[in-house]
Amino acid sequence: MQKEYLAKHLMIEIINSSYLNDSKLMEDFLTNTAHLFGSEILVLKVHQFQPHGLSALMIMPESHIAVHTWPEYQFASMDIFLKASSEPSQSLPLIKKYFHPEDVKIIELERGVK
Which end of the chain is more exposed for a tag (fewer CB within 10 A), N or C? Predict the structure, then answer.
């Protein structure tokens, strides 16, 4: 019997990127990612830390994306949690377009058995 899942969760590490301290760029990335999945944005918040770094959260129906950056290490951690009918790996071209990472590491989980 095949299991059905409620959601898909990508845990992403963005490695060696020089584009991790720009709150406008992050907001644009999140907005375009929501559009990619055809999702309504319920909440979008980007907080810029001083002297550097940011945390961002976007909440969509049954989904969210959270990002935390450490520009001093050219590193970001991102969680993309989407309802099962979506495919979170479709966001990878946008991640590469916006952040130009040298490498991206991904762990994918299927969440919640129906």
Answer: N
Host H or E run for residue 33: helix 23-36
Look over the chain and give the mean of its residue pLDDT values, rounded to a whole number: 94
Closest by Cα among 9, 8, 7, 20 to 95: 20
Cα separation, 21 vs 37, in Å, equals 25
* CATH topology assigned to domain 5-113: S-adenosylmethionine decarboxylase (3.60.90)
Phi, psi of 100 (to 5 degrees): 45, 50
Query: Could you tell me which of 111, 88, 70 has the C-alpha nearest to residue 12?
Result: 88
- Give the pair of three-digit tokens for residue 54: 């940011």
